[in-house]
Amino acid sequence: MGIKQFAVLGDPIDHSLSPIIHQAAYNLLGLDWIYSRVKVNESELAKFLEENQGNYAGLSLTMPLKAELVRVANNNGWQVAEVAQLLGSANTWLAQAQGGQPVVTNTDLIGAKTALAALPMSVGSAAILGSGATAKTLGLALLQTNSDLETLTVFSRRPEPAGEIADLITTLQHKAKFEWLPIEAAADFGGADLTVNTLPSKVASQVEVDLAFGDSFVFDVTYDSSDESLANYWPVSNRIDGRVMLVHQALEQLRLFGAFEEARRIASQDAVAQAMLSSIF
User: Domain Shikimate dehydrogenase substrate binding N-terminal spans what residues (predicted)?
Assistant: First the structure.
């Protein structure tokens, strides 16, 4: 036991809530661990991991590093969890596991599924704004939790990245019909049971949407609470807060980091999740 160092990597990184929620968990569990923010871009990631393998027990990675982490791991022969290989992205790096080599995995999928579990109905149609790593993760979560999903529409600048989400439908042998539309088409779209926004706040605020209707729901994974938030098109009761996904992917990271085994104070995972949520709500 004792002091262990953890961090979240990304660029930009100052906005990250990860240190707040991880520290809330450490406080409840009686751990004297340290969790910080480190600015690292894609071109710097491989060198950073090479030089800091002995300095951190575990790392969280946010944009734009998730796909790069899988590439670096494969190049180094590290173990890459099946879910990370399937998605082509990872958000978690574990030091000196499995025979002394680092392990990378993706806990975003667990966070996404937990957040989607709050929906009061099954999703027959879904629209995703964006086509990056987070969009692909949400696509997989929707496909795995909604066997009755009939249509999945992706709005993005280019069709090529969105094609990776379409490939998931084939891989899973799901019945859903896939459609790609340019982001500008969101202004004239007929709507969906669920709209998922993965676009950065500054980009999303410039998108004209016509997706909110009736009892439809929105899941804004950016957890933007400003007046320009895309979620404001929907009533509060029909919004899934992205911070729920953030907390539950972090809860899985805590488990992988060994927090519950090394805890000096016993607390259930539900209690830890609540402490983490309370720290940012």
Answer: 8-92
